[in-house]
């Protein structure tokens, strides 16, 4: 499936996520509105072929145009933070 993704702002570092875990920029985590906590998702930046596997541990994003917000660490594995929002392909892993 395809969607847009962004990343968490600096103000969320060290804050509690909806799952109760503490958000860390360095983590390979993501927010999603409906997937169960602990779901693993492969996110692929089709523009450059880079991918990252994230674990859903929070609820969001608040923008209907996006399926996921990624931790900064996960976003940086597939794109520059300067890009802000990127188009990706994703698949839910078993």
Descriptive notes:
The structure is a single chain. The chain is mostly beta strands and 94 residues long. It has a single domain, classed as Barwin-like endoglucanases, CATH 2.40.40.10. It has 1 helix and 6 strands. The protein has one helix spanning 72-78, and strands at residues 2-7, 29-31, 40-44, 51-58, 66-70, 86-93. A 6-stranded mixed beta barrel has the order 1-5-2-4-3-6. A hairpin with a 6-residue loop joins strand 3 and strand 4.
Summarize the structure.
The protein has 94 residues and is mainly β.
Q: Tally of extended strands?
A: 6
**At the third CATH level, what is the topology name?**
Barwin-like endoglucanases
Overall average residue pLDDT: 96
What is the CATH C-level name?
A: Mainly Beta
| SS-based class | mainly beta
* Elements, N to C (H/E): EEEEEHE
What's the SSE blueprint?
Blueprint (H helix, E strand, L loop, with lengths): L1 E6 L21 E3 L8 E5 L6 E8 L7 E5 L1 H7 L7 E8 L1
Parallel strand pairs: 1-5, 2-4
Antiparallel strand pairs: 1-6, 2-5, 3-4, 3-6
Descriptive tags:
single chain, 94 residues, mainly beta, Barwin-like endoglucanases, six-stranded mixed beta barrel, 1 helix, globular
